[in-house]
Amino acid sequence: MSEKKYWKNFGELNLTESYIKDSENEFREDLPMESSLEARGILDAKTPRRDFLKYLGFSTAAATLAASCEMPVRHIVPYINRPENIVPGVADYYATTFTSGGDAVSIVAKVRDGRPIKLEGNELSPVTHGGTSAQVQASILDLYDTARLRYPVQMVGGVPQEVTSFEAFDKLVMDSITASGQNGITVLLTPTLTSVTTKQVIADALSKFQGSRHVQYDADSYSGMLLANEASYGKRVIPAYHFDQAKVIVSLGADFLGTWLAPIEFARQYAVGRKIDEKSPAMNRHYQFESFSSLTGANADERFTHKPSESGAVALALLAAVGGNVIAPALPEKLKAGVQAAAKDLMANKGKALVVSGSNNVQIQIIINAINEALGSNGATITWDATNLTRQGIDGDFAALVNDMNQGNVKTLLIYDVNPVYNSPDSKKFISGLAKVKTAVSFSGRLDETTELCKYILPSPHFLERWGDAEPRTGHISTMQPVIAPLFLTRPFEDMLLILSGSKITYDDYFKQYWTNKLGGYDGYEKALQDGVIEHEPATAAISTASTPYIITAGNVVAAATAISVKAGGQYELVLYQQVGMGIGAQANNPWLLELPDPITRASWDNYAMVSPNFIKEQYGIDLNNRNQSDKFESHPEREVIRIKSGGKELTIPVMPVPGMPEGVFAIALGYGRQSADPKNTETFIGRAAAGAGKNVFPFASYNGSTVEWVATDVSFEKTSEAYKIAQTQVHSSYEGRTSVIKEMSLADFIKEPDEILEDRKKELAKFGGIEGFDKEGTLYPHYDTPGIHWGMSIDLNSCVGCGACTIACIAENNVPIVGKNEVLRYHDMHWLRIDRYFTGNLDDPNSIQTVFQPMLCQHCDNAPCENVCPVAATNHSTEGLNQMAYNRCIGTRYCANNCPFKVRRFNWEDYTGADSFPNNQDENGVGKLNEAVLMMNDDLPRMVLNPDVTVRSRGVMEKCSFCVQRLQDGKLKAKKDGRVLSDEDIKTACQQACPTQAIVFGNVNNSKSAVVKTRQENEHRLYHVLEELHVLPNITYFAKVRNPESEAKEKV
Amino acid sequence: MAQDGKALFQSDCASCHNPIKVVTGPALKGVTSRVPDQKLLHAWIRNNAAVLASGNAYFNNLFVQYSKTPMNTFPTLTDAEIDAILKYVETYPEPGTQKGPEGPESATKESDNSLLYGILTMILAVIMLVLLQVNANLKKLTDDKSGIPAHEPIPFYRNKAYLTVLGLVLFVLGGYYLVQGAIGLGRQQNYQPEQPIFFSHKVHPGNNQISCLYCHGGAWDSKMAGVPSLNVCMNCHAAINDYKGEALFHADGKEVDGTAEIQKLYSYTGYDPKSNKYTEPGKQIEWVKIHNLPDHVYFNHSQHIRAGKVQCQTCHGSITQMNEVKQFAELSMGWCINCHRTTKINFPDSAGNGNKFYSIYERFNHNLVTGTMDSVTVENIGGTECQKCHY
């Protein structure tokens, strides 16, 4: 096994002074009480003994009054006529579909007493197989967003005025359309729509208006790929990728595990090739060439960085190396070697290789097509019979529309669910065009930047409130059904189109009729709704894999190669990327996503410019390899702010040094910096959580005449005197240098010495009874038996890609509070399940940096150190192996958190949930102010998302992962009621269910047939416990990460 | 095998029939003489629709007479079971001759002697005080006589010994009541609020023997037993629109007009009994919740009723005797725990009886076989651990 050093921050890398000091203090801040005492001693303090007694007496009296001797009278209000199948207190599950832009994910909504409270993946879906993402998990909270529009409005002088009924609204719109006369066209502007019925409705409506058209606009455009495929194969489609079929995967900047195209599907496929069968160890090899530290790059076996301007050259070089008829451009030595190695591997695995690119440049994508063609990927790892329909927008169409608008040709513009004012590269032009549109109607659910500039606004319902369907892949339909009555006066936008087309029925009826006919009657329709998925033969003729050969026009490739080779970048370049949580900002007012730390930087609530550590050294003279300097830099959250300029636009933004970032590149996340036309309105229009979170960098994207590019190859910057606080997690809570946390090895090593980890463990524990006897002989404490059930979990570090879906699923399931930026800055983050990120490698060489993710949650130790130190036995052990936490017994000494070696216990420093008996407990004047986002979460509306089976914790209480004990109890009860033995299917923890790669396995360890026992047996050689030597006996086992780097395979095999 | 006619009647028939009263359906006593053809009667009970369709005059008349309310079908009932039900119906005691199934509750009022003891203690204390005073006076006299200079007599209310004793007594008493009061905070045993409608459990599950689960079906499936929705009430009360049973009284002794209370139900549901139609939109009833648990307690009815097979009365008391429901149990944690300590679970035995779920507890099975354990309690399987109820 490699003797690598793993570190999570620069302090740990250099073992700096303040890092060591902080490790000694569990809770970094001084208690406020001590500051009032200062150096004067207790008698001279501001609060002397007599005052103390007075306060004590007062607070005792106050507490008695607050607890109140009088019980409030509570009421039960039953239904007048109870709907069939609804039993209060029993959750119902309905299959429906998450949609956001073009994305569509089959889900199952858990509905308790009429309220959806949790979304889970639909395991019947052949696309996602039950996987979800952080965005899908968090979208339930968008339903209860306080910033949603509650009724149709008419904008009068920038102020929304309520329109009281749909009829009145329709009349206003129709009158306006009639009044504007015959000149001009009607345009419907939407994101990619995959719904079969909606498309039919649109076609019907637009046929009534001459010259009208439907423009699909994707803020995260894949035009480059669509146009390239058209040029190469004559079809403007995106094929289906099969990462599971690939032995060698080369990604040129495509973040396919995080944000590229269909990450849930791809992550699952990818994990198929990463899971290791110990009997015949083999796995795929993943090369990543990229310009910034991405989630996918972190998972790669071989990672090479380059400047954004070189991405075309890398593609060309690769094509040349796999035998393409092009001239390889000059590349830096290391990069060139990387391309050669990748090409060699690809050639050796023809038909089992896959190359993808995240670029939106048509030429680059044409080159990629040529590479895949040369590798025989088509028909093997890339198929064209069922294509990916989630991105169909063409940037040129949108640009043409904006031109039309500016020329006054557009009479009526209907906008649904897109926000070009915020996220198009040239929003000023769009705004000026919009002003010339006679009738602008928006159907967005909230007053975003674009909607507030439209005259008429009719909010559409949230996807959980409506009927509908989606076809993310040809032939695969995912159905939607409302799981809650609309909370507000909203109407699906299709209704307006039906009215415009003169139809008398509503979309809901249309949907029902359409599918009832299609599926051969009502029974088929009902079955489809119940399953949530429909499989049917693709209606559109796709490229047949078998018969037609792929036609690659060689001229295309040569032309593309010529176009690429002339590109050159400046000294500094900029790349815009998406984060797994925030994406392009469609869910910008979602506090769960805002607080989800970025997988790589572990920062929340903001975006920033990622730079190489060397940038900090050059510009600020701080050497992060130097003990004292890195210490000084890292011990405070203030980050230097720079002003970035490119193409006449400029922006001030803090810089964040990230290991693995290439020299001379800034990488900034999209999706932040939401702002209304009048910034004062941002809180009410866009949302209290979104306001003030980060900066908008969409303006730095550029339209090259054919597609939008997410890179700026010539940027300059200047330093400012400002500093900005970035709330990072995982810079606190240390393992204090213990090394048995992360275990990693290369595949070559693993094949050579599969027993290494096992032997190490045996050696370590030999003195204490060996692995078998360690439990009983390694301690003075008595042994406790688990007579029936013993819960256990296994996490495969090889499958975990670090996407964060589990973290959000845990928040939703367990009512984990949001603490806000100010509190994250004070290290008070509350996530029960965090994904620790460790770097290893040489700070000065970005290519050498490797990243390991480790989901970390309460280990439910059978000899738990937290339990021994609790003075009130609020945390103790159950006979099922759970480390239990009784909130109402906890008095908040925090000894347990201090004694926890895994740092997974979370303390409610403030009244984050508003659950306190004292209503004013959230005004924390002296100690720190709670952010608006936290207060927003305490409104009645967002609180509807709370899981009624889980206590909402109040201030002064410790909390932590419970292994979803409410689910365990529920699953056991189901089995008991049926009088049968518990099975694996009865229970899935929230994190396990959410995981797209099935990295988490959970079950009863006492049952030798359970999945968790089987997985542990099958992966015996990679199995380890974190900090096993402490004899805390964790109930979570990890399987060591195995990488498959080309360099080591060459050396050793 | 003898069939339990009473149980079958209550589970299948009692929601619409009474042996001696016309409810939704006719009074059933004497049905075997009214329909002498046993086969026909059985066929009717199993599938009445078929009998109606066959054009039987007697049953078709009956159907019209009872406002064409369709009867449920019971295709799964065996002949023996139907006979058991009929036997139960026919042997049901006539009104008047009937003694209450449970009989009037023998009011065994516990004789409370604490007042007597209190008075005795007071008298003894006074006597002691008097004797002490007498003793002090006598001492003073003897001291005077023997010429010992007397101290100025200290009045008893300034006597330190007395004050100390008094202080101690007050401290102990005060402490006791304070602690008791603090423990009792938030508990409300015997809570008996007045409800919007005088719904008598004595009349419904008591006298009319309606199964608890007929109305509180949630107890079978859900964590909440639930209060029935109004459509459940109207299943019977669409036909029953007056109250003719024994007199009903409020807790304060005021008599209740049962018929007027049924009228209240109609006003909530918007039902017009004359036209048998719902003429107005329904209004919701705000019942006062009696059994309250703190938010940090998870309690599941179905767990207890279905998995644990606990009777409702175990926690809710003799609900069939209560006109107005009051909280029977303390609903404190100690009360829960005590029950969990003593209650035996339905552990599977070698004969195959019992809940198979518990078969995973192999050690207990072993202990039962070897005799080191005589039964498995809820506590043995972790029923007193924090996170069984607090999460």
Account of the 3D structure:
The complex is a heterodimer of chains A (1053) and B (391). Chain A is of the alpha/beta class. Chain A is 31% helix and 20% strand. Chain A is built from 37 helices and 42 strands. Chain A has a seven-stranded mixed beta sheet, with helices on both faces. Chain A has a six-stranded mixed β-barrel with strand order 21-26-23-25-24-29. In chain A, a hairpin with a 2-residue loop joins strand 2 and strand 3. The two termini of chain A are 15 Å apart. Chain B has 391 residues and is an all-alpha fold. In chain B, 44% of the residues lie in helices and 3% in strands. Chain B contains 17 helices and five strands. Chain B has a two-stranded antiparallel sheet with strand order 1-2. Chain B is elongated, with a radius of gyration of 32 Å. The two termini of chain B are 47 Å apart. At the A-B interface, strand 1 and helix 34 of A face helix 12, strand 5, helix 14 and helix 17 of B.
Helix residue percentage of chain B: 40-55%
Query: Oligomeric state of the chains?
Result: heterodimer
Low-confidence region ranges of chain A: 539-549
Distance between the termini of chain A: 15 Å
Largest interface: A-B, 53 and 58 residues
How would you describe the shape of chain B? elongated
Structure classification of chain A: alpha/beta
Strand content of chain A: 15-25%
Nearest-integer average pLDDT of chain A:
88
Helix content of chain A: 25-40%
Q: Can you tell me the residue ranges of chain B where pLDDT is under 50 for at least 5 consecutive residues?
A: 98-109
Q: Please, what is the average pLDDT of chain B?
A: 85
* Biggest beta sheet attributes of chain A: 7 strands, mixed
Give, in spatial order, the strands making up the sheet with the most strands of chain B: 1-2
